[in-house]
Design goal:
With 399 residues, this protein is of the alpha/beta class. The protein has 14 helices and 17 strands. Strands 16-15-14-13-7-12-11-8-17 form a nine-stranded mixed beta sheet. The protein binds nicotinamide-adenine-dinucleotide. The site of nicotinamide-adenine-dinucleotide (NAD) has 23 residues, from helix 2.
Amino acid sequence: MRPHFYSRQSTDLARYALENRGDGGSGPRLVIIGVGMMGREHLRVVALLGRARLRGIYDASPDSIRLALADCAAHGVAEPLVYDSLDAACADPHADAYMVCTPNFSHWNLFEGLLATGKPIFLEKPMATSLAEARRMVDIARDYPGLVQLGMQYRFKAQYVDAFHEVQSQQVIGPVKTIAMAEYRPPFLDKVGQWNKFNRYSGGTLVEKCCHYFDLINQMAAGIPTKVYAQGGRAVNFLDFEQDGECSDIDDHAFVSITYDNGILANFTLNMFSQELYEELVVTGPGGRVVASEQASFRPGVPSSALIKVETPDHPAYRGLEVTYPDTIERSGHSGATFFEHLAWVTQLEGGEADAATALQGFWSLVVASAAQQSLTSGEVILIDEFCAGQGITLPSHG
Ligand SMILES: NC(=O)c1ccc[n+]([C@@H]2O[C@H](COP(=O)([O-])OP(=O)(O)OC[C@H]3O[C@@H](n4cnc5c(N)ncnc54)[C@H](O)[C@@H]3O)[C@@H](O)[C@H]2O)c1
């Protein structure tokens, strides 16, 4: 019998990325707006990949700017310009593209402020805290002269790259019937101004945290979500958290059920009071299951590990194969996912093609997330058509 050759896409991707690293001396000149935790992760990834240059940064917090400049020094990044306003950042004729890495509630205003530049925009997830704003962004992005890429880096995690490849090929499991995704993790981390402790700034836990997973589920389902039901609430985290007299109101656990127009059923489990991080995606078809999982610790020095299983007898990944990226990439943030997201961004800026999240895909992830958030509050099943129509939102065709 011929041995089964199993090509792992994440391995090819890592090899390609490492072979195509640059020296940082040329490439698009990037401006990062918001250099908190995520903006600085992008900054470090710019240095590691070396295919773009950091032109400038803008942040409302002097502390974040100080930390960003220290990161530049530590990672051999030439000191960037520090703009004193968004207008100054926009007016820089030598900026080639902008990356918005500020809190969720500020995304719409900053996105709108950047439009006059006509230059490419990378916008962190979730694209907005309101579905109506996100819908407007879809139309704007369609007609905008520059690229608009959404920050949905989880689809670049090694185990999901391989799972997606396996699912799309339909060679083993056949047509997808059900999708189950789960995330167990420790509570939200500290943020500048603690915006992630309040629904009005973050959009709610299912919007802020889980739009990543709804994006993955949407991609795996390749259908239009029609119905969402969610249960969950506040069990453990931040029950006594208060800032300027305002109490935290964010949820810390949920079970979400999604129906797609192609008959696929999906569910998502969130638990944010776990000690360690564990993610699992299970995609099932008549021929078997694809299982992608990751175990990681928030404690320093404990490396993450990811596995893919293709559960059909004789498959090389039947018992599970490790699909972790090389260590330098893994350690650059989010198990290497940010690195590959950045590679996709730079590749597109250079005129190449890459499979990164579009505004339309960002919108659909937000549709599920907002409907789930609404279902948590109302206790009702949310019909997507009615939910969107009730907000005056016409649904775009699926992308
Ligand atoms: N941290 C993560 O792991 C992670 C992962 C994926 C996506 N994101 C997304 O990235 C974005 C930023 O998250 P974070 O974790 O870096 O938050 P953060 O609080 O650590 O950093 C946000 C930074 O934006 C600055 N800022 C706020 N409003 C601004 C404005 N109007 N103009 C300029 N600067 C402004 C703040 O001063 C701060 O330095 C969020 O949308 C978040 O959902 C974060």
